[in-house]
Amino acid sequence: MTKRFPTRSAAALACVEPDRRWLVEGLWAEGAVGIVGGEPKCCKSFLALDVAVSVAAARPCLGRFSVPRPGRVLLFAAEDAQHVVRERLEGIALARGTSLEELDVEVITTPVVRLDLAGDRERLGQTIAELAPRLLVLDPFVRLHRIDENASGEVAPLLAFLRELNRKHDLAVLLVHHAKKGASAARAGQALRGSSEFHAWGDSNLYLTRRGSSLQLVVEHRAAPSIPPLHVELAETAGGLALRPVEALTCSTEVAPPSAAERVLETLRDATGPLRVAQLRSRCRMRTQSLVDALRELTDRELVEHTADGYCARG
Fold it and tell me: Is it true that the peptide bond before 70 is cis, omega within 30 degrees of 0?
């Protein structure tokens, strides 16, 4: 005889205490699955690692959003070499006033994880069972499978597996995923590449879009009010490179974007030592010729000097 599904009266359902609603206050709900999304080169990985550092070290994410109940983080960074992952985590830790050694972050070191393969799903589940992390970070989704991301029937089972891990192990899951190129005008979740399953899946979603030289962070929650959009920038703080909030530009104020020379000078003033051309090009995100012209202008104005170790601001 077929048994019926178990049920419980609505009044007997579990409730969540106020101090257990958030993994990261305002940004990520307790036990939530979701997406950190955005177009290429929008600092998605830096944001995901910032969340990881905050949860692992009980430090405010982005220097602003507190972590009520910290815990271990399990990370798989599919696109970055291990030394790059270490360097980024170390920089974010410094910016948040802690150190790499204090982070309870376990990094999966196998070169490939395939969620569309039963063996890899089993290994991931076993790793989570043994390490008992509070948060799983997977970056990015496109490197975790060989399915058609536009096919709902292929995407849904992989997301369902992550939801299963979430419920079985009381685990928050943060999945980094790309947005469509040129989709910055679309509503954040609808700009995600591939199937609409991604947007529908998330309990907490963070979306980064580039607005000129600045980045805008949009937050969405399934079961909580969302904070207003936040402007952030990648900058050096306390000797570490990390994202930080900046004041939002009001619609009524006309603000001219900084010139190439102003951007270079600000970067050099924020640096803790001389920077070479390659480092400046990476931090300022500009073409080599534009950077060279800016450095020549600043040198002629005696605002910057060129030393054996690189360029540095005067005064």
Answer: no
Residue 252 in this model has a pLDDT that exceeds 70? no
- Whole-angstrom distance, CA of residue 107 vs CA of residue 75: 5
Pairing of strands 304-307, 105-107: unpaired
Looking at this protein, which amino acid is placed at residue 66?
Answer: S
Q: What does the alpha-carbon distance between residue 189 and residue 162 come to, in Å, rounded to a whole number?
A: 19
What confidence tier does 253 reach under pLDDT thresholds 50, 70, 90? very low
Q: How sure is the predictor about 257, in pLDDT bands with cuts at 50, 70 and 90? A: low
Tokens of residue 4, six digits: 């019926």
- What is the structure's pLDDT at 255? 44
The structural domains of the chain, ordered by start, are 19-246 (3.40.50.300), 260-313 (1.10.10.10)
What mean pLDDT do residues 75-90 have?
96
Structural contact between residues 195 and 152, judged by C-beta atoms closer than 8 angstroms: yes
